[in-house]
Write a structure and sequence with these properties.
alpha+beta; binds 2-acetamido-2-deoxy-beta-D-glucopyranose; two-stranded parallel ribbon; Ribonuclease Rh, Chain A; five-stranded antiparallel sheet; disordered N terminus
Amino acid sequence: MARTALLLGLVASIFFQTALAGLYGESNLNHTCAIVKNELSCSANAVPGLVDSCCVETFGGLVLATQFWSTWTGLESEGQLLPKNSWTLHGLWPDFCNGSYTQYCDLSRQYDPEPSPKTTTGTPSGTPVPPYTGPGIGTFLATFGKFDLLAWMNKYWIAQAQPNQDFWGHEFSKHATCFSTFDTECYGPSYQPHEEVVDFFTTAITFFQRLPTFAWLAADGIRPSNTTSYTLSKIQASLTAHHGGLPFVGCTGPRYNATAAGKGSLDNGFTQFSEVWYYYHVAGRPQRADGVPVDTGSYRTNCAKAEGAVWYYQRARGSETCVR
Ligand SMILES: *[C@@H]1O[C@H](CO)[C@@H](O)[C@H](O)[C@H]1NC(C)=O
Ligand SMILES: *[C@@H]1O[C@H](CO)[C@@H](O)[C@H](O)[C@H]1NC(C)=O
Ligand SMILES: *[C@@H]1O[C@H](CO)[C@@H](O)[C@H](O)[C@H]1NC(C)=O
Ligand SMILES: *[C@@H]1O[C@H](CO)[C@@H](O)[C@H](O)[C@H]1NC(C)=O
């Protein structure tokens, strides 16, 4: 079957300049998703061969919509600020259905100036991921006239200690290249270079906008504070009730039992609330944003679990901008 596809691809390339670069080396013909069933990712039918992997996510079917809470950017002096009353977009990640994952799946679409990890496996035996030195990924949007998208991204998709577009390049190349549904073949013979980059950004944004973490927590009395701390289970309960699945709740900062409050405790979880990862299975391609919320797997949190051990800090003065 692969051989047949390859042959057809070679013949078609004379007319269509077929590129067989994706996760499955599929042809760029016949990916009309409107006429195929929107199977749910990670279901029994969502496997290559049974479905069009351009129309149903068959590679990274456990989709994570991830967000950050940070209190500073490090590039405030250049106007890189955090949006008031909102978390920021981290990314949209394709985990395997069992929760493990791959990264940097197509080095021909490597736009990350600071690859992390530096090889595809994160170990010295993996394939090196060369740092990208070309024009920032944000410049790709101009070709498509998406200046509004670029402006939105500079408000809500904010990096820490690096320019925003370097972070967007990281998110795209590390993660988006590991979705079957963002393979360039899926876009057909008239594919425009970077078309799928715009598609990935807008898809990640669509998920993000349905996950108003700040407002959800605030509705349950959990607001940024430098004087009141919170209990992890309360944060988890709030987010689970609003989203429909238990998300991963991430923390940074000192470990609880390394702080004065946790002295003598055996709880060595981190104390500064900083991340949420919402999990989904998706019906049809993720671009449709038809997600079914699911619980995170066994990795639920790295935060301290003790009563009142978690800090949801206010942003630093001067790190936040007013949006709308
Ligand atoms: C595309 O679809 C047409 C019509 O069903 C079919 O004849 C052709 O073989 C398909 N080509 C590929 C590469 O799948
Ligand atoms: C998880 O699934 C992937 C993709 O099917 C597979 O390659 C990997 O070996 C699995 N990992 C585990 C720990 O089962
Ligand atoms: C912190 O907790 C860990 C895990 O329970 C324990 O091994 C360690 O000794 C504790 N450290 C301190 C300083 O209490
Ligand atoms: C709140 O605390 C965080 C963490 O220590 C700090 O970065 C931030 O500047 C503080 N914000 C305010 C408004 O004091």
